[in-house]
């Protein structure tokens, strides 16, 4: 029996309530240009977590927090012996992040719970809304580390020992803000996981599509590279005698861009963080630390990009006389989402009559790790001009409502499919 037969086409989430919740959460860590800054495990992240937990309790959910700080809000089903259907995303942001990245998926999940409460409808299996810790990887690398711990990709000790640039660990900061939980990380069976998210790219809006049915997720490799040369005075030191660490880094930055272009149109190659020492206008840089982010939906191509980067770093080091430190700090292979979950999303879209297209996610998401332990899929909605990880990131209320309506029907279909 379809969800349309159960709910009718007139049943929908409360779009105004969802929007109001998004705007209320956006007040926490609000930035001057309309975005948010809620770095993982900061006091602002704690405030966002506290508000989410309170809203979930108000909706009748029970709360558990695991040892890596993931928050689970559970709504009982008719048969609580069945594995739960999860939905969620993350509450942390980039330093100059937007109001929708991650938080939309968490609050869309909460709105599903609220809507089921309004309907006095109890699903067969329990459902849970989850807020994953440190998805962004902006403060603690790598990204998605807590969902990775949950899925068994990383062990708990690894996750808790991740350090920010000030040397503070995730474990220390979880304890400080009161979210070092005691629920088991793994060991329970899950029914499925759905994640609603803004696309973070321009395709849906450009093609005037309301929903992206996400079938796959690109693989990623993250690197940390350090070039060490010799600090020296910018005036008396002849050009021929310099060991300029920034020169070496700049050549690798150019190589990274070239590698991305050589594997177009699907490759993405980015240097997003750089630290220069001593960072003085009249001192030749003696040390430069920077990061590289590679993405591609084909694992073989991703490996080829990796080889080219390693060759470029070795060549530049030899040409410039610099010492190098090179580490791949994170890798996950491309992901194909579960056919049954994808069809649940597709079926919901068909019932609702939304324009749509299949998509491969260009960004990494917690769903990419959850796919290793439970059937998983994602639902994309457009964002204006494809802009994300930016304070001006925006999604129209009707887009947010549409994605949440799809989430509602997909989750209920799975929760009642016993």
UniProtKB/TrEMBL annotation:
One Pfam assignment: Peptidase_M20
Annotated transmembrane regions: none
Record key words, sorted: Hydrolase, Metal-binding, Zinc
Residues given in the record as Zn(2+) 1 binding sites: 90, 101, 197
Residues that, per the record, bind Zn(2+) 2: 101, 136, 389
Keyword Hydrolase belongs to the record: yes
Peptidase M20 dimerisation domain sequence ranges: 219-318
InterPro entries: Amidase_Cbmase, Bact_exopeptidase_dim_dom, Peptidase_M20, Peptidase_M20_dimer
Name of the molecule in the record: N-carbamoyl-L-amino-acid hydrolase
Organism: Nitrospirillum amazonense
